[in-house]
Design goal:
Layout (H helix, E strand, L loop, with lengths): L1 E7 L5 H10 L3 E4 H8 L5 H10 L12 H8 L3 H26 L5 E5 L3 H4 L7 E5 L2 H12 L3 H9 L4 H7 L2 E4 L4 H21 L1
Parallel strand pairs: 1-3, 1-4, 2-3, 4-5
Helix pairs in contact: 2-5, 3-5, 7-8
């Protein structure tokens, strides 16, 4: 197994790149997806969240009302700590389980984690950083994901800086333009991954 981390700031296009690498044959472990799975009805993390915060965080169909949770934890550091203490261990254990499943294979495994640099929770054989000009990332978040500019910038301020991420990068994928302009950079990234994989 070749385990590589993939990260980038919010709005950088991480999911686009990890999905394209998956199309080329990599096994992608997407931390955000793992969170969503464990927070879906029947998931262990959702059950623990309801036990702590009450049924007011559920929609009428039993799914998680993310806005209700955000309203509770946004201005309450103790409740935010409680949320993290519920979510992080469960998600971490599931990501570890998925990595272990791949350990004896010859697969390229891409660990797509938003706070890879900040958490230092995983030891990988290389780090791919999707690098986007912060102003362009803000424009994308406002245009495509319904953020206000202030909210987008506040989210960014809680993440590693562009410089901190680049300092940890073994391979940089620039993403300041269109999907068509991104494609050659993804191809170059896959060539780099293949060269590592072949010398393994």
């Amino acid at each position: 197994m070749l385990l590589l981390g993939l990260t980038g700031g919010i709005g950088s296009g991480k999911s686009t790149v990890s999905s394209a690498l998956g199309d080329r044959g990599a096994v992608v472990i997407d931390a955000d997806l793992v969170v969503r799975e464990l927070q879906s009805p029947g998931g262990s993390v959702l059950a623990a969240m309801v036990a702590h915060f009450g049924e007011g965080i559920l929609n009428t169909d039993g799914t998680l009302n993310r806005q209700a949770v955000a309203d509770i934890v946004f201005n309450d550091t103790e409740e935010l700590k409680a949320l993290n203490a519920i979510v992080h261990p469960g998600v971490g254990a599931e990501i570890d389980r998925r990595i272990e499943e791949q350990r004896a294979t010859d697969n390229v495994v891409i660990l797509d984690v938003p706070l890879l640099i900040e958490s230092k929770a995983y030891t990988t054989e290389g780090t791919i950083v999707i690098d986007t000009d912060p102003d362009i990332a803000v424009q994308r978040l406002v245009a495509h994901r319904g953020f206000t500019e202030a909210d987008a910038r506040a989210r960014m301020a809680r993440q590693a800086t562009r410089e901190e991420r680049l300092a940890e990068a073994d391979f940089v994928v620039p993403n300041n333009g269109t999907p068509d302009e991104l494609e050659p950079h993804i191809a170059a990234c896959w060539d780099w991954i293949s060269s590592l994989h072949n010398t393994d």
